[in-house]
Amino acid sequence: MAHDTATLEARSWAHWTTPAWATVDGLETAYRREGEGEPLLFLHGAGLTRMWQPLYARLAESFDTIVPEHPGFGDTAMPEWLDGIDDLVLHYDAFLDGLGVERVHLVGHSLGAWIAASLALTYPRRFASLTLMAPIGLRVPEAPPADPFRWSPEVALETLFSGVGERYAEYLEQAGEVEDTLHAYGESITFARLTWNPRYDVRLDRRLARVAAPTQVIGFADDRFVPAAHPRRWAELISGATHVELEGVGDEPASHLAVVQQPDRIAELIAAHAHRNALA
């Protein structure tokens, strides 16, 4: 597939970098890769695509950091075959094979954490360490997550940044209001295809016992989307997993998008865990 190089190079929004491309079972998959060291695969949540975030840059100081855009997100097209998380598990196994990367450290945020955990339980010997941040995908009846499919754009901003979204316009304003709205709508369709019904996978309660990689689960103290009971439950179900709850700093809450708010602190947590579980 030919890419419109001129269009990509003309983009100028904050944190934009031109992606590389990998053909994965016929799907042209956009990804960014920087840094040296042991490879680290970062799986993003249901947004904040088409950019190289400060968190990724911090991780690239210590790791060969690989950040693909999921099918149906960013500049990776929505394939007809995408039906659920299992399809993404197979996609990312083939993606790593295509890059010639055998074992990696694996990190996921929100939706990306669900995908990462599913990868780690399906291919338990492929991952040297696993970090899950604000993960979704478990059924926790006493503490259901907020319903993102009911949010207006204003409510989404308020919820995801825990009331301080106006401070992060540079992460939300890209090609312009109309184009940004259409892009967000397209990604929401993919998110719905993956998580609409059900919003969780009850099989994870049993299957997470297959995860062999040393795991840390990070929750965010002021997360208005994913209740604190969820990361704790993930840590309970994965043998030997540790649980960390990241607090806010000053008047800055630790929201669901703390990956944007506290990149340095989160990079330190990820790096320390990965270094304790080096590939060698």
TrEMBL record:
Protein name, UniProt field: Pimeloyl-ACP methyl ester carboxylesterase
Record-linked PANTHER family: BLL5160 PROTEIN, HYDROLASE, ALPHA/BETA FOLD FAMILY PROTEIN
Gene3D superfamilies: alpha/beta hydrolase
All copies of domain AB hydrolase-1, residue ranges: 40-268
One Pfam match: Abhydrolase_6
Molecular function GO labels: catalytic activity
Record-linked SUPFAM superfamilies: alpha/beta-Hydrolases
